[in-house]
């Protein structure tokens, strides 16, 4: 069966899942679907569709080139100089900071002349209510996970039928630091902060499920500060041991996606392991651009773990344990990973980031 003909999990439209994702076989049981409790703004034209202009099957990478049509009238995505109006004040849009599959992020100056990252949810030819629900879910999630290593949300609003989040503006994503090996001490310091955030999420019964280098942001103070972002596909376990992700990012696919279709807290630890490997080696343990069948074989046969073992250092061995194929043979918690990491020579002998 081709990816395009598979039934996407949890009722996600096929067009969406095939953009970035490989669907998985139906599981034996279905996790409870998420709902949001945020109220619908009274201005919402419920039932209206926000759609891309005729002829476009998905958004272009430059969102400025695109118009959307909610109810017969054309709306443009924000451009430099646009004013976005929230009940809390107006935001003046500056440059585009980045674009992803489901969002475009702009720098903007807000009501108190503070700089923010304004994330717009891409309509991507989806019904108005679906975009609104995705936005509301992310808002609610970000409001519920206040932590120094989770990106801070200041405001959330609708402007001209497009949905925005006003976020803490970070300096760059982790992906900007990848491409050459980082020092052991820096890798471990970034991993330490990532693990602290992941432990906090897990203590709150949330699986992030999308820990890729575009979703790990960095702010530079006297030392780099990690901020996890993008809770678009994260889910609450609600007492279940595992959840079924709506979408799966190939570059960070955990083996259990292939065997069961479900992810657990250990899947987040696998993704942190992939990020640590990428930082340490300078290239990913899952090579980009692989054909889907090869990628599945690569992950299912444990190639990422073998690569980590081949580093041949205690840090490589620790990463290899995080990349084990079977969840029960990985670390149980992020806290447990850190208690091993902090004993490594790369951390004990570090010159960077001395304890304060
Ligand atoms: N709060 C922020 N501060 C600074 N830059 C940000 C912020 N949020 C996002 N960005 C930048 O915008 C880019 C796009 O973010 P977005 O979440 O839309 O896409 P992505 O993370 O690259 O991919 P994906 O859609 O798979 O999450 C990020 O990679 C990052 O470079
Ligand atoms: Mg993102």
Mean of all residue-level pLDDT scores: 81
Annotation, overall tally of beta strands: 14
Strand order of the largest sheet: 4-5-6-7-9-8
The CATH architecture term of the largest domain is Orthogonal Bundle
Q: How much is the radius of gyration in Å?
A: 20 Å
CATH superfamily of the largest domain: Transferase(Phosphotransferase) domain 1
| Main sheet specs | 6 strands, antiparallel
CATH class of the largest domain: Mainly Alpha
Q: Which ligands accompany this protein?
A: adenosine-5'-triphosphate, magnesium ion
Helix content: 25-40%
What is the terminal separation in angstroms? 56 Å
CATH fold topology of the largest domain: Transferase(Phosphotransferase), domain 1
Order of SSEs, N→C?
A: HEEEEEEEHEEEHEEEEHHHHHHH
Shape: globular
Portion in strands:
15-25%
Low-confidence stretches: 1-73
- Broad structural category: alpha+beta
Count of helical stretches: 10
Number of domains: 2
């Amino acid at each position: 069966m081709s990816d395009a003909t598979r039934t996407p999990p949890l009722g996600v439209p096929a067009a969406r899942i095939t953009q970035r994702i490989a669907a998985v076989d139906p599981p034996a049981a279905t996790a409870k679907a998420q709902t949001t409790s945020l109220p619908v703004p009274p201005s919402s034209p419920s039932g209206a569709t926000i759609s891309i202009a005729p002829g476009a099957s998905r958004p272009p990478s430059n969102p400025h080139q695109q118009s959307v049509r909610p109810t017969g009238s054309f709306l443009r995505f924000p451009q430099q100089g646009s004013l976005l109006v929230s009940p809390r004040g107006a935001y003046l849009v500056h440059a585009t900071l980045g674009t992803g599959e489901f969002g475009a992020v702009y720098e903007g100056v807000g009501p108190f002349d503070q700089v923010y990252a304004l994330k717009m949810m891409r309509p991507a030819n989806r019904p108005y209510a679906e975009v609104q629900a995705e936005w509301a879910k992310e808002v609610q999630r970000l409001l519920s996970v206040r932590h120094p290593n989770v990106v801070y949300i200041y405001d959330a609003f609708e402007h001209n039928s497009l949905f925005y989040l006003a976020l803490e503006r970070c300096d760059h994503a982790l992906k900007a630091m990848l491409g050459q090996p980082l020092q052991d001490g820096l890798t471990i310091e970034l991993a330490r902060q990532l693990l602290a955030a992941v432990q906090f999420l897990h203590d709150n019964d949330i699986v992030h499920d999308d820990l890729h280098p575009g979703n790990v942001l960095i702010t530079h103070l006297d030392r780099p500060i990690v901020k996890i972002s993008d809770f678009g596909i994260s889910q609450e376990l609600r007492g279940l041991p595992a959840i079924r992700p709506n979408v799966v990012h190939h570059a960070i696919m955990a083996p259990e996606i292939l065997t069961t279709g479900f992810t657990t807290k250990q899947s987040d630890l696998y993704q942190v392991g992939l990020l640590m490997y990428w930082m340490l080696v300078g290239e990913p343990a899952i090579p980009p651009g692989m054909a889907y069948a090869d990628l599945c074989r690569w992950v299912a046969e444990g190639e990422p773990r073998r690569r980590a073992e081949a580093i041949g250092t205690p840090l490589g061995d620790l990463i290899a344990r995080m990349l084990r194929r079977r969840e029960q043979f990985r670390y149980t918690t992020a806290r447990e990973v850190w208690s091993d990491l902090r004993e490594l020579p790369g951390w004990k002998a570090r010159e960077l980031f001395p304890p304060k």
